[in-house]
Design goal:
Layout: H1 3-16, H2 24-31, H3 35-46, H4 50-65, H5 72-78, H6 84-95, H7 99-102, H8 116-119, E1 133-137, E2 140-150, H9 156-168, H10 172-177, E3 182-192, E4 200-209, E5 220-224, E6 227-233, H11 242-261, E7 263-265, E8 271-275, E9 288-295
Antiparallel strand pairs: 1-6, 2-4, 2-5, 3-4, 3-8, 6-9, 7-9, 8-9
Length: 298
């Protein structure tokens, strides 16, 4: 069974059990993934965190139910919302109007089932990607700046580019480079501390350091654990297109490489993008993507 089929199986299960308690662990077990790996694969294929997807599907079914004569509180409780106020807040955020007003025009038509094959729009720019190198790396330290963000409503896709713009457009880079114990000027963009229940995580922009001693106290510090990594190098491109190539490479990793690799994400580790002097080339810019992996249990 392909990854697409496995994720589709979990989508169908969600639909068939939409009024029942659901959790990442249960859905992961259904398709034979670890919770962490399932969380990452689901996000890559569906475009949002799994529990946000569940919440949105419940709201879609609740919206259809509003065409009937049941009490709004009862509908809210049926679809997993504990209070009228909580349901109204979530409904307003998603549909732009409160359920009482939506009810005036509710059609009562149940939402169509989601077919992943229709959602999948994988497109890679830049040709063939070579197979990754599989490397062992010992624990190492980075220092820099940290952003707390979330994958809910794709907020991270807004926050992280803005975070980079602020870093590159200020004196932060120069300040960081002049710190003691800086190993070199290779930049890291690191995703750490992912909480699969809340979808929150920390994103660091930093440099590798040999020690935290003597660093400016305002700097964020993190230690990445030892891990086995699949290391992908993006195809060469002009510097202005590097960001697009990085996103396409991530799509390739999730959609093409992982399903056929025999590996899954290593729980408790961090994935990161690495930008060395090659990333500064005007016409042959590349970046590296380091993904922590473990062998998948068969």
């Amino acid at each position: 069974m392909s990854y697409l089929d496995q994720v589709q199986l979990s989508l169908d299960y969600i639909e068939d059990h939409i009024t029942e308690p659901l959790c990442v662990q249960e859905l992961a077990a259904l398709v034979g993934f670890s919770p962490y790996h399932y969380y990452r694969v689901f996000g890559a294929y569906v475009g949002m965190p799994v529990m946000e997807y569940v919440r949105r599907r419940r709201l879609a079914h609740a919206a259809a139910a509003l065409a009937g004569h049941g009490r709004i509180l009862d509908i809210a409780l049926d679809y997993g919302f504990q209070t009228h106020a909580g349901f109204t807040k979530a409904f307003l955020k998603t549909y732009g109007l409160p359920p009482e007003r939506y009810r005036l025009h509710a059609s009562g038509r149940p939402p169509e089932r989601v077919k992943l094959s229709r959602l999948r729009e994988y497109k890679f720019r830049g040709g063939i990607i070579v197979e990754p190198k599989i490397l062992e790396r010992s624990a190492f330290k980075i220092a820099g700046y940290v952003l707390q963000t979330t994958t809910e409503n794709a907020q991270n896709l807004k926050d992280i580019p803005k975070f980079w713009q602020e870093y590159l457009g200020s004196n932060q880079a120069k300040h960081l480079q002049t710190q003691p114990n800086v190993l070199n000027h290779t930049l890291y963009g690191v995703c750490m501390d992912m909480d699969i229940e809340t979808s929150h995580f920390n994103y660091y922009i930093g440099l590798e350091v040999t020690d935290f001693a003597g660093l400016d106290p305002i700097l964020a510090k993190a230690e990445l654990p030892a891990a086995t990594y699949a290391v992908f190098t993006t195809p060469p491109t002009d510097r202005s297109s590097l960001s697009d190539y990085i996103q396409s490479t991530w799509a390739y990793i999730y959609n093409e490489w992982f399903p056929n690799s025999g590996y899954e994400f290593a729980t408790g580790s961090a994935d990161f993008e690495r930008y060395d002097e090659r990333s500064l080339s005007d016409t042959q810019a590349v970046a590296e993507i380091w993904v922590p992996i473990v062998k998948k249990d068969i």
